[in-house]
Every structure is written in C-alpha cells, then in structure tokens.
Amino acid sequence: MTQTPTPPPTEVAPSPEVTPQRAASLEGLAPADVDFAPPLVHATRIALHLLGKGVSIGWLMAGMGTSGENRTTPSVAECLRAAGRAGLKSHVAERENIQSISPLTLPCILLLKNDRSCVVTRIQGEMVEAIFPEDCIRGESDYPTPRKLLAQQLNDDYTGYCIFVSLEEQPDTRISPLTPNKERRWFWDVFTHYLPIYKHVALASVLINLLGIASSLFAMNVYDRVVPNSAFDTLWVLAAGVCLAYFFDWLLRNLRGYFVDVAGHNADVVLSSKLVSKILTMRMSVRPESTGALISNIKEFESLREFFSSSSLLVLVDLPFLLLFLWLISFIAGPMVLVPLVAIPLMIISGFVIQRIAKREAERSYAQTMQKGALLNEIVNGLETVKSCSAEAHMLRKWELVVDDSAEASSRSKRYATLSTTVSSGISQMVTVAMIVWGVYRISTGELTMGGLIASNILVGRAMAPLMQIASMLNRLQHSRLTLQVLDKLMELPSENDEGQAHVDFGHIQPAYTLEGVTFFYPGSTVAGLKEVNLHITPGERVAIIGRMGAGKSTLGKLLMGFYPPAEGAVRFGGVDLRQIDPSDLRSRLGVLPQDVVLFHDTIRNNIALGMPSVSDRLIMRAAYLSGALEFIQSNPAGFGGRVGERGMNLSGGQRQSIALARALLLDPDVLVLDEPTSNMDNATEAIIKQRLGKVLAGKTLILITHRLSLLDLVDRLIVVEGGKIMADGPKQDVLQLLSHTPPPVREPHEGASHA
Questions:
Q1: Between the N and C ends of the chain, which has fewer C-beta atoms within 10 Å?
Q2: How far is CA 336 from the centre of its chain?
Q3: In the predicted model, is pLDDT for residue 574 greater than 70?
Q4: Domains of the chain, with CATH numbers?
C-alpha cells in the first residue's frame, strides 16, 4: 500500500501567537466526535466481528506500533499483528480481480487505493456485498449493513491485494489443563520454528567433518609413499586434492556461519519482542520490585541468545563423528585407539564433576550481578537526590561493597571454568604424548608406518577437539541456564491481555463508575489501601477526591484506571465490571494524568501524541493550548519538535506536567482522571488552565485528585478519603462546610501510605 508520510516532528514550526480568535478556534474543536482510526483498522474489526470475535477500535489501536515518526497509517503487518492477539489468522494474497476470489474464503479484506479498505461478505456473479469503514459510527457497537454494488465498481478501486482471514482453533477448556503451558515454550518454540535453517547447518557440519579426514590421509600417503619413492607427481596430485578439500571446507564453514547468524538474528528479534511485550503487558500487581534487576535480566538475554546461536553449539553436531574418527584410528593404528578411548570418559567425567561444583558459584555470581544492576539503576535515577543530600560518599561505599562481592563471586565462578578447561586441555596433551610414545615402539617393530602415526595423531586431535569445546561450552551453559530460568519466571507472570480471555466489544459505555464494597491491598502489604469503599459517579459528574497524604486518593484513582484488581468487591465502568473489559479498551476511553509524570526521550509532539502518533498537528496544538503548554512551546525555536530529554530532564516540573496534561486531553475523552494536575505549576498558570478546562468539560466525567483547594472550582462534588475509607461525600459546599467544623483526625501512619 502507498503510505503518505507526515512531515518530521522536527520540522514543525514554532507555534503562532495565541490570539483570542485562535484560542476560540482551538477550544471549539471536538476531537471526541472525530474518528481517528485508519480504514484498515475498522476493516479488521469488522472482519473479526463477522468471524465471531468482538473487539473494540481502542483495543486494536493499543496493539499496534508505528515503523517510524512519519507514519500516518499503520501497515498491514502492524494491523494484523494486533488482531492476532484476538486469535485472527491472516495472510495477504494477490488476486487479479474480485471475481477470482473464492466465495468460500469470505469474509475477506480488500486493500483499496489511497490507503482505503473494505470487507467483502458475499460475491454472487457480477454483484458484491461489502462493508465500508466509512459507514461505521464512532462509539457504536452495531455494525453497518453491507452495501450491494457491482464488482466492476470495486475492481476500479482495487489494488490487486486482499487479506484472507480466519480464527485460530481453540481447544476445549476441559482439555486445556492437559496441554503444556505455552509460556514455558516461549524460547524453544522459536528455535523449533527456525529448525529448517539449522538442518542446513547440520548438513554443512557433516560435510566439514568428512573433509577433515583429508588432512590425515594426505599426511599418511606423503610419508608412506611419496617420501620413500620420491614420487613427486603423486605429491602434486595429492596436494591438489587436499587443497580442493580445504577450499570446500572453507566455503562450507562460511556458509555454516552465515546460516547460524541468520537463524540467530531472526530468533533474537522474535524473542526480544516476546520479552518486552511481556513487560509492557504484565499486571501491575506482579511487577518485580527492583527495576534495575529486571533490566539486568533482560540484558542477560543477550548472552543466552548468543549461546544458542553461536558456533560453539555446533560442537554437538560434531560429536557423532567422534565414532568415525575412532574407527579410522583403529583401522590405521590398531590397538592405539585404546588411548583416546580411555581419555574420553576421563574428560567427560571430570568436566561434569567440576561443573556440578561450579553450579553453586555460578548462581551466586548471577545473583550478585543482578544486585549490582539494581543498585546502579537506583544511583543513576536518583542522582539529583544523592547530590542534594551530599550522599556521594555513602553511595560510592555501598557500590564498592556490592562490586567487591560481585567480583569475588565472579572470580570463583571463573576459577572453576578455567579449571575445567585446563583439565580437558591437559588430558588432550597427554593423549598426544601417549600416542607418539606407543607409536614409536610400534614403528620399531614394523607394526605401524611413520605416515600412520602422523595420520593417527591428526585424527586424535580432531576427535578430542569437540570434547575440549564441550568443556568451554558447559561453562557458558551454566550462565545461560540461569538466565533462561529467570526469564521463564518472567514469562510465566500473568498479563493483562492473557490469551484465552473472551474479547467483547461493548461499544458505547456510559462514562460512569460504581464501586461496590471495594477492599484493596498493595502487593506484599498486609494493610489495606482501601477498605470497603462504596461509590457511584454518574455520567458528566465532576468529582474531586481530597484527603491527607497517604489517605488512599491515588490508590482509588489507580483502581478506576484498572491498574489493579480489588481484593474484594467490584469496580464497574458503565455498569460493566472492569475485569470484563480489556485494559487497553478501558484506557482508550479515559484521559489520565498520573501523579508521577513520565516523559520519554523524544520530541514534545511525540510525547503529547504518545499512543496516537497519527493524530493531526491541529489537535496536538489544541491539547497544548488547553494544558498551558503552548505558551512555553512557542518560545522554543524548535516548537513542537523540541526534545524533552530523558524523563523530561530538559523541562521544568510544571512544563512536564503541562505536556502530560495535554496528552490526557488530546482525544477529548469522556472521562478525565487527573491526579494533582497543577502541583508543580504557579498560580497564574493554574488559573489559565482552570479557565480553559472549564470551557471543554461540559458533559464529561471529571475525577480530580488534589490537595489544592483552588482547583475545586472545577468540580461540583467532593469525596473525602481518610485511612482508605470514604469519610464524607456530597455537594462541594456541604462537604467544605462540614470540614470547616470538623477537627482533623489524628492517625498513625500505615504501611500502604507510601502508595497513596
């Protein structure tokens, strides 16, 4: 399909001056009434519906990425990948015209010119029934009736490509416990998928080992036949033959390395995607406590991938040829084959004994490496705090202690690795000496020729080489085994969009919340963050949640956003339990400003349009105006193309908050959840934002979490939270009057306070 790129963000001109007329224009936009989903996304949703899978546009859009900053529409692969999460199997095919599409394959998606799509539901002669995305009504779950039109009308607009779709067969729930856990096969299934490539690698290894015999045969014939008889013609023939064998050996080794790199590269992309996808979709309740340790584990995946895609693993392919080399030694040197036959078990047994002892040290070294990564992440992220507290010396001493323990554990682990290698090398050297000594005695009795001794030594070297490589491979195997175990545990963590969950397109849901007897505990905490909360927020209601620090305000907001499930009770959105709504579908209906603002190392535009990169610049400007960000953006020479730095370090706290607020307001959602939206802003900026928000909040549900009484002008209802319970709830003036006559309660701090 032809993609229409948008200008790069760095080319966005500085914002023009905000005149009263322009402000009115920006405020007058109604993004909630605009459908931003590309036609292909709508077509995919329609196809899923016709196949019996109901998903929402928000759910599909959340599962798509973009291949670059200039993309305005998703590619076919991106869209179908998102639909694959719902069990859609699909493939793109080329068909000359619509009549060449079999009616048995319907419904199918047609790719039309100018990035348009439609879903064909019936083909009968010259007539076609199709559903066009343009007929879909934003926010409605009902699907349009197919249009009837002539096939030639569609053929004129048809690009020649269509997408055939079907649903994956799901096993009955009664037999699912008997099937292996899919998460545990995340690693091996990928390598099994690329097994055909490894078959080429194995074939190349077979030929390389067969060609390796040429060296021993060449040496034996030269010393036994050419040298005694001065047969120079024979010498050149043998030299030409062995050189030809060496050439093919060189060629096959390079081809083998190429195939290993191709398989490793493909597996690396797929496996890395699986790992990061798991991190992005894991439930907040099971998120690892240490971010640094988690990052270190992901980095260790590189060593795991390298082990399984490196040439060292090819030694396993070479092992069966050990028998061939031993047979040739027996054929040439007779009983001298006993030397390697005795050495091989010694080498294997010593290697496994040493590795069994080294296993404990490898585990200790791995744990110390994770601790070092966790501490380094804390130091880097908290550098300003460390400096402001003059704690450089303290953190340095703490780092030195951790590094010392890590270095000692790593040293002990390497000591065993070195011992394993040196033992294998020593046994191999003793085999060479024994073969030469015994061979000399046999030559003196006429039982062996000089060429036979040299050929036997070469073959012994080829036979012992894989065993020596195995000693080195076992050392790396210990580390890779630990990494795979840790990553297995990560992949087994439950995700928000676990496969097998029923997907339902609820269509338009009233922007209302109901909490029924909700009790909630943070992971690892024994103190409830919320206790038996009952609450109802009607559509279009403006509510402020206030309370003391640690009272549970932000905790309540996180439950409303579906970040955590309640331990008891239910949280309902529009009458639907949040556990029935896919989290990405729920959050596509909300505009959220969290208490802890996070910006990414990108442009201002892309930070505002995070999750919706194809949105128009006009809507981005509108959101920036409403949030108060447009004033400081227009003073930046780069405008919306200015870089915010890592975690927004190039901006002040108030500026970061303005951009995050613009992100929440971008698509004019029906529900706004704003947690301390102006805590880092000055009073003048806050007043401007209040004025602008007041003009666009009509008909929207506002949930405002704040300590600042000045923001209460935006709401009509107050909810007072104290100790995880709702202490007061009612009209704003009534609650404020009640609070003015009620002394603040004295309470002890509890364990869950830091979360709220």
A1: N
A2: 56
A3: yes
A4: 35-167 (3.90.70.10), 182-491 (1.20.1560.10), 509-589+701-756 (3.40.50.300)
Model pLDDT, residue 310: 60
What is the longest distance spanned by two Cα atoms in the chain?
120
pLDDT in tens, 1-46: 334 333 333 333 344 444 444 554 555 556 666 667 778 888 888 8
Q: How far apart are CA 435 and CA 439, in angstroms?
A: 6
Helix/strand/coil (H/E/C) assignment for every residue in 22-45? HHHHHHHCCHHHCCCCCHHHHHHH
- Across 135-256, the runs of DSSP E, i.e. the strands, are 147-150, 158-167
Q: What is the DSSP letter of 750?
A: -
Q: What is the pTM of this model?
A: 0.73
**pLDDT digit string (tens) for 308-331?**
666 566 677 777 778 888 888 888
Instruction: Provide mean pLDDT across the span 290-314.
Output: 69
- C-alpha gyration radius of the chain: 35
C-alpha to C-alpha distance for 503 and 53, rounded to whole angstroms: 7
Least confident window among 229-243, 298-312, 577-591: 298-312
Helix (H, G, I), strand (E, B) or coil at 298: helix
Residue type, 375: L
Q: What is the DSSP string of 583-604?
A: HHHHHTTEEEE-SS----SSBH
CA-to-CA distance for 233 and 220, rounded, in angstroms? 16
| Cα distance between residue 692 and residue 594, in whole Å | 20
Q: Which residues contact 245 (CB under 8 A, 6 or more apart)?
A: 211, 214
Distance set, CA 461 to CA 213, 327, 333, 338, 428 (Å): 11, 14, 14, 15, 8
Q: How close are the terminal C-alpha atoms of the chain, in Å? A: 48
Phi and psi, residue 37, nearest 5°: -75, 130
Task: Check pLDDT > 90 for residue 543.
Answer: yes
Find tokens 């038996």 and name the residue: 532
For residue 276, the SS3 value is helix
Supply the DSSP string of 92-129, one letter for each residue: EEE-SSGGGS-GGG-SEEEEETTTEEEEEEEEETTEEE
Per the model's pLDDT, the better-predicted residue between 190 and 564 turns out to be 564
